[in-house]
Design a protein that fits this description.
By secondary structure, this protein is of the alpha+beta class. It contains 10 helices and 10 strands.
Length: about 325
Amino acid sequence: HLEELYLNQCPHVYKPEFYKRYVDDTFVLFKHQEHADLFLNHINGLHDNIKFTMEKEVDQKLPFLDVLVSKCDGGFTTGVFRKKTFTGLGQNFYSFCSLNFKFNSCRTLLHRAYNVCSTWKLFHDEISFLSSFFKDNCFPDYVFTNFTNTFLQNVFQPKSPSYDVPKKPLYISLPYLGLQSSVLKKELNSSLSKLYPYVKFHFVFKNPLTIGSLFRFKDSLRELMRSSVVYSFTCPGCNSGMYIGCTNRLLKVRIDSHMGRSHRTGNLLNKKDESAVRTHCQGCRQTFKYEDFKIIGQATNKQALLFLESLHIKQLSPNLNNTSSSIPLQIA
């Protein structure tokens, strides 16, 4: 809406000759450099809360996202742009992760170089840079060389299109165990392809031992502010009434629902949700508090949460639950 507004209302004298936007970055061309300042003042005057900044070309070059646009012989050339903060540090070849991640870094940067560089000279310079980059990150020379040769061969001698019915892709995540993961991948592919010939299996190996898994670098959330949890309740009066529940919402919101009051205002609701906890406490003539609830499990999705709740119900046998399981469990 704003683009249409400031482009349509822009005086023709300094209206852009070319205007393209990607998310919140725009690339604009003008007949004269002073027109850029006039256009910037124009768009900054349209709304008090929206202000734009501008970066002009320097030495006939202007970076736009990952592309360096340069003036050349009345036209433009494009090459790969790297910020001054670029350190040359990438994924080390001897890092403990799957070879696919390391090889895909070669494929990705080759693909970017070919698609961004507008001349073979710039492409050649980028390949030379990438060769040094991977070598500095302990990649054997033959690895990047082989990927470069394969890439160029596919460009100049593309394969004939295949008209077979594509298989359905299925991605499976497994923990990375070093060289054993490659052996496991071959065995699984060999076995599963016979059972499911119409499925193409993609095994993604991840290293679970990240820095975040070893060191707590974020402040812990209060229990009442946690969500996707399984919780237990024990009656403060008789100590015999027990309830197991789960919620995808914040625990505080769910407890307020048990109390029959609004989690926003704290006022009692005229129409309350049914609650076995509240019904039991009314019979015991007891009031219950947030401290009477305890988190006993947490899951990442609704299905896993229901399974976890059902397992706790089966193990603890709470007497206030209306059902023996939230989801069918095939266990004895």
